[in-house]
Design a protein that fits this description.
- The protein has a single domain, classed as Vaccinia Virus protein VP39 (Rossmann fold, 3-Layer(aba) Sandwich), CATH 3.40.50.
- It has eight helices and ten strands.
- The strands form two sheets. The protein has a seven-stranded mixed sheet, with helices on both faces. It has a three-stranded antiparallel sheet with strand order 1-2-3.
- The chain is globular, with a radius of gyration of 17 Å.
- The structure holds S-adenosylmethionine.
Amino acid sequence: MDLDLLLSANPEYQIELFDRQLSLFHKKDKHHVFVDFNSKQLKFRSQAHLNAELIIKAVLGKKKQTTSIMDCTAGFGKDSYLMSLTGSKIIAYENNPLMYALLKDGLNRAEIDNISLRKIDALREVKITNCEVIYIDPMYPATKKSAKNNKQMMFLQAFVGHQSEMAEELFIQAKQSAAKKIVIKRPVKAAFVLDKKPTSQIIGKAARFDVYAL
Ligand SMILES: C[S@@+](CC[C@H](N)C(=O)[O-])C[C@H]1O[C@@H](n2cnc3c(N)ncnc32)[C@H](O)[C@@H]1O
């Protein structure tokens, strides 16, 4: 996928530097989308509340031991960032060139050293990963309301779109890896990926995490 092609397919956005941050500017709504690991929301989630985060419970389990995690779907890097705060080593994959550029810029500014970002399709490496945990957060259809209220969601819908089969393909390959578990983020009421019942689940209000012990 080519960066110029992506931008020309979405003429309502332009790429620019905003406050020294690489960002996408929505010309009509006049908002910037960029990666900010110092945002109030992430600070709140990461400081006092990290162990209460459902993703941390799902990935680290009861023992809460640090681990190595392959994040197959890095996106804006929020999940990678929260997982990195546990001291775990994160290898994050993002195959959308625009998403990758924004995330790389955010990581460089934040100087986080236990997230290593790769600009390739996670499908190419999931089966051979050395990581103990494989994490998958596929795109799923947003409701009209959530897309309207969430600028990052609007951006993802415009530039990434829905990838319903991606989760299935990643899951099939992940099951053949030497990892200890797979964690898949799903909408609360969504069906299991490939109808496969998880070993355990962490269920929240907006999302749930299906955990598959391998
Ligand atoms: C729902 S978003 C992930 C959001 C992310 N968990 C976060 O915290 O910001 C899904 C992202 O995964 C990326 N993606 C989907 N399939 C991928 C694959 N096979 N390899 C690498 N990246 C992928 C998409 O481009 C998109 O940016």
